[in-house]
Amino acid sequence: MKQTKDSRIHADLHIHTVYSADSVVQPKMLVDMLNAHSFIKVIAVTDHDSVRANKPTIELAKAYPDILIIPGCEISTVEGDMLVLGTHELPPKPWTPESVADYARSIDAISIVAHPFRSYGMGEYARKLKVNAIEVLNGGTNKEDNNKAKEFAKEIGLPGTAGSDAHQVSELFSVYNQIDAAMNVDSILAAIKKGMVSTHTQTSPCNLT
Ligand SMILES: [Zn+2]
Q1: What is the tens place of the pLDDT at every residue in 132-176?
Q2: Is the pTM of this model over 0.85?
Q3: How much distance in Å is there from the Cα of 98 to the middle of ligand 1?
Q4: Can you say whether the dihedral through the CA atoms of 160, 95, 144, 45 is positive or negative?
Q5: If you measure from the C-alpha of residue 2 to the centroid of ligand 1, how many angstroms do you get, rounded to a whole number?
Q6: 197 sits in which H/E element
Q7: 204 Cα–ligand 1 center, Å
Q8: Which strands sit side by side in the sheet containing 7-15, from one edge to the other?
Q9: pLDDT, tens digit, for every residue of 61-86?
Q10: Taking a C-beta distance cutoff of 8 angstroms, is the pair 104, 113 a contact?
Q11: Where do the H-state alpha helices sit in the chain?
Q12: Structural domains of the chain sorted by starting position, each given as residue range(s) with its CATH number in brackets
């Protein structure tokens, strides 16, 4: 399909690879699954406190012109987890929610509060932060806590994003975002900032071609 200016991008924005100690997803498997999927063609790599998977995954994805990898990480701040999308580097320490949000802004990346009402989430603390979005649909979080996050994002006027938070291949793409953007990282991040994103659950995650 030829990509015109803006189109509908389908993206899973929270994925762990083997560079997270608790994940078994190899970059090669991730790229193969993305290539094989019928409509999800964009993912963000968000390992715990690591950006090591970004380069090898992007390298592997170069073989497939219709898939896109957003480099990122999930930072364990003192208050709870935050995603940074659009970075090849880790934020400077110490990792406070404020410093991570500032870092993201300084490099034109975006910061997202991950699963605010689950374990390792920062809950109400997110209210005072200058972040770009709240993760309102997390694949590893129960419905009630996701709904709470959705209400919270609405209340504070921030866009909501989705991410499978996959740590194994069977968990990939369980949820996804529909984003009105062109097929490149800058356009996708800008669209998320503007709230041109909606979150969805897949009834059959392994929707392969
Ligand atoms: Zn995670």
Answers
A1: 999 999 999 999 999 999 999 999 999 999 999 999 999 999 999
A2: yes
A3: 19
A4: positive
A5: 33
A6: strand 197-201
A7: 21
A8: 160-163, 133-138, 110-113, 81-85, 68-76, 42-45, 7-15, 175-181, 197-201
A9: 999 999 999 999 999 999 999 999 99
A10: no
A11: 27-36, 54-61, 97-106, 143-156, 185-193
A12: 8-201 (3.20.20.140)
- Residues 74-131 pLDDT 10s: 999 999 999 999 999 999 999 999 999 999 999 999 999 999 999 999 999 999 999 9
Query: What's the CA-to-centroid distance between 138 and ligand 1, angstroms?
Result: 9
Q: How far is the CA of 48 from the centre of ligand 1 (A)?
A: 7
Using the mean position of ligand 1's atoms as its centre, give its distance from the Cα of residue 37 in Å.
Answer: 21
Give, to the nearest 10 degrees, the angle between helix 27-36 and helix 54-61: 40
66 C-alpha vs ligand 1 centroid, how far in Å? 25
